[in-house]
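> tool_call: predict_assembly(chains=two)
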Amino acid sequence: MNKNLRYLTGPFSKENPVIVQILGICSALAVTVQLKPAVVMALSVAVVTGFSSLIMSVLRKGVPSRIRIIVQLVVIATMVILVDQFLKAFVYDVSKQLSVYVGLIITNCIVMGRVEAFALANKPWASFLDGVGNGFGYGIILVITAFVRELTGSGTLYGYRIIPESWYEHGYANNGLMLFPPMALIIVGCIIWAHRSWNKELQEK
Amino acid sequence: MDALNLFIRSVFIDNMVFAFFFGMCSYIAVSKSVKTALGLGLAVTFVQVMTVPLNYLLYEHVLRADALIEGVDLSFLTFIVFIATIAAFTQLVEMVVEKFSPSLYNQLGIFLPLIAVNCAIMGGSLFMQQKVDALEMTSFGESVVYGLGSGVGWWLAIVMMAAIRERTTYSNIPKALKGPGIAFIITGLMGVAFLMFSGIQL
């Protein structure tokens, strides 16, 4: 039980896929202008990593290792198509905002990385937990970045106004630069900085 | 003129790395020396130039609504078809290069197969699909130009980054920021500089 819990929670901080393993950054940054798409993206990735790890773990003894990459791609692509169709059906506006980034979950290194590194050598249930844990570890970074960007860039959170109107009358202004793509990189850089000051063993010599 | 405009746009304004964060994983991992960055950039550009037009043909003539059979819309299959094309093409390139030029194959080494899961390649094809749907891209030629432009943009970004990172080995960076941390911040600052190009039209 304890071991399973570790699979689930390990990726939240010390084995975080984004800021420690530097995986899956491509889509992590582009969807963080607002909190809502970031949350939807985080859930989608958690679902895809969880179930692709589960399926590949079930199939791991039947698939010859020479063709495993293409089998993985097919499994992952199928999961992503399901998620994409689901988003289009139930949260169409968010799916429009995410645009190509849903499709890019296929090439998200976290999914492939966890399948290769973990699911091919472990039991289905452990692989599923590991996949979901990594999906949420990715989600945490997404949500922190989106929180900072939406609050300072538009003064709202999840679409609701947080900074009161009266502040604007006294000369407060939104930081428009926060809405531009480069700021996401700088914020993640700062998260890495803070995280590594905390966890000294992760620092590079 | 339109083609030149599209090329400039895809290299500088819609730069794969600075505007969309595509291919960041290999971008951070491989940008430690200029020489390997040049090799990988070249390989990515080549695969991009080949796969975007290939996927364009597939999308335009097979997958699009009413393209193959009247009333049949196969566009929900685009993800799986695009990734299959890319994976198959990368495999093909690897085999051809290994057969005809073993020295080049040894130089590129592990980077060649890794291109299949480089988001810049998949992203290029997906943006091509978006442009076709928005009627911004109407000919085969334009898809070639777009593939070339986005590949060259990625190449430019990784070579610039590698050059800067080679210099930073001599600078005094806070311990916790060394490695990926400073790489992210440098990329962010380069991205701010690239914002300067937005709005340029020829």
